[in-house]
Amino acid sequence: MSNNSFTVSIRDNFTGWTTLDFADFAHNSFSGPLPSSIFDVPTLRIAYFSENGLTGEIPGNYGNPPLLRDLYLDNNDLRGEIPGISTGQLTALTEFLLQGNGLSGQMPDSVCALSSESLEDLWADCLDDMPVDCDCCTECF
Predict the structure, then answer these.
(1) Taking the model in full, what pTM does it have?
(2) I want to staple 130 with a disulfide (CB 3.0 to 4.6 A). Which of 8, 64, 96, 125 is the partner?
(3) Mind listing the pLDDT tens digit for each residue in 2-46?
(4) What's the domain range around 28?
(5) How many distinct structural domains can be found in the chain?
(6) CATH code at 104?
(7) In contact, 65 and 89? CB cutoff 8 Å
């Protein structure tokens, strides 16, 4: 679904899905909140939501998919603080892109701890007086 001119919201109707490996909604004009039910799909490995007009907060269940490797939420209009994750969540995550949003607060220690495991790229708006305080980010914008 990437690189189109979709302008509607992404329906939050992934409840009950047992298989979804790759979800690419990037580079459109989708609006509305992130579909939280997509993060309950146990086989989700890659989720690209970059470059849209998504609003609201990052769902608290974003850490649920045990196989999630790439999560791109960059360049939307997401607000609020970045939710922490529980021990054992997102252990396969290698790329987590958050820059270009209206996120604020401290990067959770639970997310920073992933840097010693698998996380190679953690990008946020954390340069100088930017709203995200992140000592573990690999790239600040």
Answers:
(1) 0.95
(2) 125
(3) 999 899 999 999 999 999 999 999 999 999 999 999 999 999 999
(4) 22-140
(5) 1
(6) 3.80.10.10
(7) no
